[in-house]
Amino acid sequence: MTQTATAPPRLSFPVKLVYGFGSIAYGLKNQLISSLLLLYYNQLMGVPAHIVSLALSASLILDALWDPFLGFVSDGMRTRWGRRHPLMYLSAAPFALSFILLWHPPAGLSDWQMFGWLLVFVILSRATISLYEVPSSALAPELAPDYHERTGLLGYRLVFNAIGAALAAVLAYGWFLRSTPDQPMGQLNAAGYSPYAVTVAAITVVVILVSTAGTHHTIPRLHIPPKRRTEPGEILRELVSTLSNRNFLVLLCAGAFIGVMLGMVGGLTLYFSTYFWELPSSKLLILMLAPLFATPVGALLARLVSQKVGKRSTAMLLGLGGITVSLSPIVLRLMGLMPPNGSDALLWILAAAQFLATSGISGAAIMLTSMLADTVEENQVKTGRRSEALLLSADSTLQRLAQGLSVIIPGALLTAVGFPEGAKPGQVDPQILNNLALAYVPTVYIAILIAAGVLFLYRLDKEGHERNLATIRETAAVTEAIAEADPLPAHVGPVGVQSRPV
């Protein structure tokens, strides 16, 4: 199937809805693995924090290498169900099984045996959800080639991601890990994690299958790649030419520093909520629901602001603003300017900060993904290949490598400041908590400042994107005319122009 010479029709609302719906799966998974896994294995299973962090770090590094390989395979697949959908259908059952086993370690294991169990099943959980997430993400540039429609479609994706995270929070802090008279800190209730994980796995399977089946009818309009040579040298040349795009490399470097930030935030947020702010699970639920309402605001902000100042400036403004707000309650507490723990005023200040921070950060995330998607057509003009999955997954590679290395930091910090295992909220030395905060805040903020600075080097704007789309359409028209005039075999040139062999 060749690219059509005319612009594709606008996406219908049901397609946008069912495509975005699939991100619930990723939101559910992230809420448990990113927020609860370190706490569960360290505080409830009794595994030292640095050992847990080492396993999480290794899993992220391997995941970072797996995703680009998966993207390269997906980009070149030629099946009757297209390049993306076979892998998406395949992901559901293996993910459910590996995810359930992750939260069911056998009793009586030593620390290093527990490390092995955690490592194997967190790797399998990440790898199998990637079978869905990588090809699903790669659908966005094809479904929405228009500069601003693409941003809107990615907004649906992030909103449903927030819905998944909110659903996970409701299931956790409203049900399985809810506060009880015997255990007001429900997040420390070990018995609740097993049924919670099974429920999340079951919901994830349904979400993946519904979203994949719901976009199945779009397969005939999607790109069919030409047959390609599979010699190692040819594959390497194709990878190098695809990944050497200047704007892509800028986003790759910025993503590395964002990865450092995410590693720190993901590892320590629940520790701050539980021990620094002493929030029971009933109040944690309120904070966890903030993204559900804030993410649509972020999507709207991203769309409106980017139409005025462009995608790059919008990403920088919303990202820096969101991180500044998210860290401000900790800074104010260190300055002695926050209400005491347990007060209603503290909860609502934290909830307001969470809402504003999530609005900015989610808007910035949409912009960065949209900027990355714009490099797909720029790369197609230069190489003649559509490599959505490779580009989108490779961008996350350096970010995840950095995140994988930085995930070691939370465990190392907890060990360095002398944070006790099996700690009781309200009984941890305040100086230990202050030392943790003093290390956490500047590390996170410096990482996001560097990421914002790197984005100054990104140069692809709306006009450049529209020129790329026009070039691709013109090329498709020429290709179709040549095919009609001359039935001889053709080869593909730099922008997909097919010409007769000499």
From TrEMBL:
The protein's name in its UniProt record: MFS transporter
Annotated TM spans: 17-41, 47-66, 87-103, 115-134, 154-176, 196-219, 248-272, 284-305, 317-339, 345-368, 401-419, 439-458
Alphabetical list of Gene3D superfamilies matching this protein: MFS general substrate transporter like domains
PANTHER family for this protein: MAJOR FACILITATOR SUPERFAMILY (MFS) PROFILE DOMAIN-CONTAINING PROTEIN (PTHR11328:SF24), MAJOR FACILITATOR SUPERFAMILY DOMAIN-CONTAINING PROTEIN (PTHR11328)
Record-linked PROSITE patterns: MFS (PS50850)
Key word Cytoplasm present: no
Entry-linked InterPro entries: MFS_2, MFS_dom, MFS_trans_sf
Record keywords, A-Z: Membrane, Transmembrane, Transmembrane helix
Family per record: Belongs to the sodium:galactoside symporter (TC 2.A.2) family.
Record has Transmembrane as a keyword: yes
Domain Major facilitator superfamily (MFS) profile stretches: 15-465
Signal peptide: none
